[in-house]
Amino acid sequence: MYALRTAANVSRVAGVASARIVSAVSDTRTPYTGTTRLLIMPANHAMLTSMLAARRAYSSAHGDESYEEFNRRYTAAFESVPDLFELQRNLDNCFAYDLVPSAETITAALHACRRVNDFPTAVRIFDALKEKTNEQQYKEYMAILEPVKEQLGVPTSQELGL
Predict the structure, then answer these.
(1) Are residues 146 and 84 in the same domain?
(2) What is the CATH number of the domain that holds 106?
(3) pLDDT along the chain (162 residues), means of 10
(4) CA angle 15, 54, 39 (to 5 degrees)
(5) Is residue 80 domain-shared with residue 135, that is, in the same domain?
(6) How far is CA 112 from CA 54, 75, 123, 127, in A?
(7) Could you tell me the residue range of the domain that residue 143 belongs to?
């Protein structure tokens, strides 16, 4: 009785409308600690093939984009963020790639932080930049971004002593 209830629950959870138990193997060392393993097969062949053929279809909306296209896309995204959530979502997506955004994209992100009035995210942009680059690249980025830092009054976490 327990095995049948388990099979019904498993078939409901697995999304199989009708299933049949092909085999039930019972391991009964003691009457109360035994385990039953069930092999559940779909009732018809079409259901089996649909279960096996199901796979995730990934979107290829962006395909192979160049570094310039990547920077244009995220610069435009940062220039039009309406709120903090969209800013942080775009930053997360931008820094998730295996490349470092250009200084223009970072500048747009810093201006977006000012627009949505979020100082901590602006500081974290410099932290993310430091994590994505080596020491020499970070110094080059900081030299390029120094006027923007001064204009917006955004220090790095090292300058804050964090």
Answers:
(1) yes
(2) 1.25.40.40
(3) 46 50 51 53 57 53 82 96 95 93 96 96 96 95 96 93 86
(4) 50
(5) yes
(6) 41, 10, 13, 17
(7) 67-152
